[in-house]
Amino acid sequence: MTGKLKIILVEDDISFAELLSQRLEEFGFLVEHYEDGASFLDLKPGGRLILLDLMLPNLDGFRVLEILRHRKDKTPVIVISARSSEEDVVKALELGAADYVFKPIRMKELIARINRLLVQETNDDGTTKPMVENDFLVTPEGERVQLTVTEARLIQLLIENPGQVFTREELIESISDKAENPKVIDVHIHNLKKKAPWLKERIRAIRALGYVYQP
Predict the structure, then answer these.
(1) Strand runs (DSSP E) across 3-151, as ranges?
(2) pTM exceeding 0.90
(3) Are 211 and 205 in contact (CB under 8 A)?
(4) What are phi and psi of 103, to 5 degrees?
(5) How confident is the model at residue 44 (pLDDT cuts 50, 70, 90)?
(6) Residues 6+ apart with CB under 8 A from 102
(7) Would you give the distance in Å from CA 101 to the centre of its chain?
(8) Positive or negative CA dihedral for 64, 69, 73, 79?
(9) CB of 53 within 8 A of CB of 62?
(10) How far apart (Å, rounded) are the C-alpha atoms in residues 48 and 149?
(11) What is the CA radius of gyration of the chain?
């Protein structure tokens, strides 16, 4: 198990798809790419979120949205398109798209929108998030993992702000009472994942930025 969240990308522009996939992978996602709507629908791949272009060969993005709705597929869809008319946006949202992002893509904005939807999806399924209690990390199943004071502050900050990317500098300023090298955060994250292996799937390193907790 990779521990990475899989995003389905349906995009016929190969160069753009390769570049976007590379950038998404830098942010810790696993990307599965399809060049047209028909092959995507035929294979019915599983993913946590779908990025869908509108101007696709054979079946356009609107038709793909209609079929997904007919299938009662609840996977959140973000439309990514150069089509920016109000009519296109409204039509996509009415057909079930969760969000609409214009090309050219602003990467930080796209990542923020992806994280928001993933957090919302997790909260909607009724699951209970882990909590920190007296320097113990307590899972919804009742497992208790003893932490250091610094580890407890760190994981509590991440859990209480799911989907938010923190720089190492922001994290160290929030959890430490003394001046420390921000790179010490990497050590604390490593120790947390060692003590609670399931955190390997929840805490993702964002290259050149920092860390994000994804439920």
Answers:
(1) 6-10, 30-34, 49-52, 77-81, 99-102, 131-133, 136-138, 144-146
(2) no
(3) yes
(4) -85, 145
(5) confident
(6) 80, 81, 82, 84
(7) 15
(8) positive
(9) no
(10) 34
(11) 19
Please name the helix (run of DSSP H) or strand (run of DSSP E) that holds residue 166, with its range, or none. strand 166-167
Q: What is the mean pLDDT of residues 19-27?
A: 92
Joined together, the tokens standing for residue 72 give 């009662």
Both tokens of 100, joined, read 């609409």
Tell me: the pLDDT tens digits for 59-93?
999 999 999 999 888 899 999 999 999 999 999 99
Identity of residue 36:
D
User: What structural domains and CATH numbers belong to the chain?
Assistant: 6-124 (3.40.50.2300), 131-213 (1.10.10.10)
| Biggest alpha carbon–alpha carbon distance for the chain | 60
Owner of token pair 């969000």: 99
Q: Is the pLDDT of residue 2 over 50?
A: no
32 pairs with which residues across the strands? 8
- List of residues 6+ apart from 189 with CB closer than 8 A: 154, 203, 205, 211
> What does the alpha-carbon distance between residue 37 and residue 42 come to, in Å, rounded to a whole number?
9
pLDDT, tens digit, 9 for 90 and up, residues 116-130: 787 666 555 555 578
Residues sharing a CB contact under 8 Å with residue 74, sequence separation 6 or more, in sequence order? none
Q: What is the mean pLDDT of residues 26-46?
A: 90
